Amino acid sequence: MVGRVSGGAAPRSAISGVLPLIAKRIGSALVTLLLVSAVVFTISGLLPGDAAQETLGQSATPEQVAALRHEMGLDRPALTRYVDWLGGMAQGDPGRSLVANMPVREVISARLPNSLMLAGFTALVSVPLALAIGIASAINRGGRLDRTLNVLTLSAVAVPEFLVATLGVLVFSVKLLWLPSIALVSEDASLWDTLRSCALPVLSLSVVVIAQMARMTRAAVADQLDRPYVEMARLKGVPFRRVVLFHVMPNAVGPIVNAVALSLSYLLGGAIIVETIFNFPGLASLMVNAVTSRDMPLLQACAMIFCAIYLTLVLVADVVAILANPRLRAQ
């Protein structure tokens, strides 16, 4: 009876020790998001020109620009506009687009599913390939396969997304005529047409993500292979394949999930470049258009969504690292 109580107390104690640390990470993420909101609002306000001038054009008189600025609320103090905007964001209302003259939420809702689809396709391609490359490289450390994969992944990490996209267009669109150079995504398109339209954007995003994820996966598996329990299992005559499958991989799950989450966060920066090059109707290209038209409410909402997604992925990586490594629970 005593054994049962003490056995159940250990997991409860472990959970009670982990929850405050996870809550601390979540609190830090929320504070970071608040600071990012101030930075985003300040930087967007420093951009030259505004939506009133862009809407009326260069031929507008100062009186016309001033009247439109007053109508759009751009002449109010910056702090007042920031507080109102932050309160609206907290309630799920990012305001009204100054250019489209419609709620920002409706503008974003038309583009966000496309970006999520692109990210989903990229993750579907990148994660299995990266895990296979990383695990194969770690198992064959020092061998010819490991050296070859290391050279390829290191070279891929150094190649920027816009160069991969340009080469993909030259090879698959101009030379071979296999894939379209512009991603035309619509609700009426068939699955095959959607896959063809997303092929080059997914390829451009996947190259760097696969390389980064594979290198991080290799490091995680190689670290487990250097642990004493692996050497002990080998000395007992356990086959290497069984050691990897039943001992190394379960212990490497936490670091691998951490690597996947961090690698997928890199998609956010690449998506801005790739969506612009292929004219993909996603959230990143919408943010670029908002910068061009000085549509501040739309720009700020898009930037906050990207920051929130990035912080969420980093938070997931931190939580997984905490759950997988008992030593971090004491920090």
From TrEMBL:
It holds the Pfam family BPD_transp_1_N. Residues 112-317 form the ABC transmembrane type-1 domain. Keywords: Cell membrane, Membrane, Transmembrane, Transmembrane helix, Transport. CDD domains: TM_PBP2. It is found in: Cell membrane. InterPro entries: BPD_transp_1_N, MetI-like, MetI-like_sf. The keyword Cell membrane applies. PROSITE patterns: ABC_TM1. The chain crosses the membrane at residues 26-47, 116-139, 151-174, 194-214, 256-278, 298-324. Belongs to the binding-protein-dependent transport system permease family. PANTHER family: DIPEPTIDE TRANSPORT SYSTEM PERMEASE PROTEIN DPPB-RELATED (PTHR43163), PEPTIDE ABC TRANSPORTER PERMEASE PROTEIN (PTHR43163:SF3). This is ABC transporter permease. It comes from Novosphingobium jiangmenense. The lineage of its organism: Bacteria, Pseudomonadati, Pseudomonadota, Alphaproteobacteria, Sphingomonadales.
